[in-house]
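User: Structure tokens for both sequences below?

Assistant:
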Amino acid sequence: MKSSKFLIIALISVFTISVKVSAQKTAAVDITKVVRTVNRTINMTSAGQNPVLHINANPGPGLAIIKHRDFKNGEIEFEVKGEDVFQKSFVGFAFHIQNDSTYQAIYFRPFNFRAEDALRKKHAVQYISVPDNDWPKLRSSFPLKYEQPLGTEVNPTEWFKVRIKVDAKMISVYVNENPKPCLEVVSLGNLNSGKIAFWVGHESAGDFRNLKITAN
């Protein structure tokens, strides 16, 4: 059986996104019909040829869940921009979502990208599997196993590209064009399929663009 692939790409239009199910068929639809928010509001703006999905800040984590078929294994690619504000910028992507509080996620702390403190720089990219394995438990029980430095220079206030490779158990994270993963972990728990979502953390907003999902 051939691999099944699909793409989700933001269009120039402020209020639409394109859902490409195959190379032959593309449909533009109202964003509210394909994205469901959790603890956040969203809006889309257009800057040149790159439409941007903005998620507002709020206490607690937030999701913009894409109402598409479930994602199991494959690659998730997108560009994201956060802020260089201490403890106020957590931006990333969630997958294998079962409900609003049960999922896996990879996220970044841009305010740590250029931190002078060496330990803070090692807390740049994070894996979590909630609710059982959130970052406080992982940091306490497995120091620097589920969070790592980026391994490459990234401006905390500019766009950077993320590629998340999800295999049966292994998750690898790449930033910009670096061929070496900045984080590679064995997934925790039994989550292996579910919805996908843009993700932001406590008191954090985030900007996202150029999302592409390739499912195996």
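Moving on to the next sequence.
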Amino acid sequence: MNTGFSAAPTPWRASAAQVLVNDLAAPELNSADLHHLQRVLRLRVGDHVCATDGVGGWRICAFLGSEQLEELSEQHQEPPSEYEVTVGFALVKGERPELIVQKLTELGVEHIWPFISHRSVVRWDAEKAEKQLERLRRVVHESCAQSRRLWIPKVGYPCAPDQIPGAKGLARFDQVRSQGAVLAQMGGRALQQSDHTVLIGPEGGWDQTESAGAICVGLGQHVLRAETAAITAGVLLTALRAGFPRESLR
């Protein structure tokens, strides 16, 4: 359809908003996104919106004030990162998991792994784990739209046969440790570009059986709260990947 809107769309990061769609060939808004664009962002008919499929594909569209979007540009494909980075964190209380996931998404982390460690106070049973992980994935979608991110990060550990029964995506410490991860701990060495996965322990610290023989990295000069440590790990990992100065605080 052509309603006469400008055929010279803005780059995706300069668009008025970004939305996730199921089909870039025929992009449509879901009811929640339509409400957000109309009532929260107060977009006007004709404003440019970036539609993305969440796996690097995108195109600029015109907002029509309805669920239908008008395509203004060809489809484009943003390549994935040269290497992917992961931050895992032991479960924390309250809404702090949402804060961690929100900020790691904005920073560009590809994999976010909540897990249960020996000293974890918070423990999700199978039913709660599925609900909480689904909630965190909704946070990811919202954060991708806000930050204009075209690749949606994966929240939850890849499925494994010995996973907690029914808790899809929630892992144990030994599972995430087996993936070549380094552990955040005071006194550890500086984080290096070759470190792709950093694990953040519970507020009570790592159990000796967990830290024995592990490579430990320092994230700062002071003791950090779990959520601060997770976000700091995301900052450092993505900064190193981008080629920023590699000197890290111990």
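User: Anything stand out in the second?

Assistant: The helical segments are 31-40, 96-107, 126-147, 173-177, 208-211, 226-241.
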